[in-house]
Design goal:
29% of the residues lie in helices and 9% in strands. The chain has helices spanning 38-63, 67-70, 140-147, 190-194, 218-225, 239-262, and strands spanning 27-29, 35-37, 85-86, 126-128, 156-158, 179-181, 204-206, 231-232, 235-236. Strand 7, helix 5 and strand 8 form a beta-alpha-beta unit. Helix 5 (218-225) crosses helix 6. The N and C termini lie far apart (77 Å).
Amino acid sequence: SLVPRFYLPTRHALPPTLVSKRHPPASVVSSGGTPVATSDASCLLTIQAGHRRRALLSARSVQCGMGRRTGITPGTSCPLAGFPLDYSYKDMHEVAGFLKERPFAGVAKGADRAALPKGSELNACGVKLSNNRLTTLHGLAEFLEAVLDDPSELRWIDLSHNQLTAVDAELLNYPKLSCVYLHGNQISSFKEVDKLASLESLTKLTAHGNPVEELSHYRLHVPCTISTLRSLDFIGITKLDRDKMDMWDRSHKAARERWLQTH
């Protein structure tokens, strides 16, 4: 009889006890050069592939400024950088106020770079301004110019839990943004969220906790308008979701055309 397969070494051949003695299956050669049962070998190769994939994603996360912690999509061509600059909980009413503050985490432009990962090209590719009292992003360009080595490489920004009522045009000046957190603000119209469609690299967006979330067809309208999104409000957008969006979009356009014809 077969021993349960939860014991599957990844670099050596499987123990002989894992192979049925009564019905010896066909075999393949493992990474160690020893024949392994086909069924068990397929499991072994799957596990080995999983290890390689995790190692690759880990390396890419580092290249993307610690992608899993910033929300930056692994594999994007982001230069090696340090952790995002954390200016959360500063009780700031305007972005200019952060210029007088030091980040809780991360290395700002001009500060001691000893804490940056070895070989870092930039000090950071992300900024966290959450849990403040911002009502506008006026002054964002000047702030980023002062704290980032290269503001044009901004990939991730956390503006959650402020008092923003609109998506300011200043945010749209950073086309490489792939992740924007806006949850917990006061944005109330699709017109404001739709502005983010001009960010062609945007794949992750949060807007829950805003009045706009209560509007009809919120989860259909937003990813349908911002077609590059792969995640909305920390929930992945699946193929089934895409199919629903396509159906909704077609029916919405048809209804609009009928309305225009009658008015």
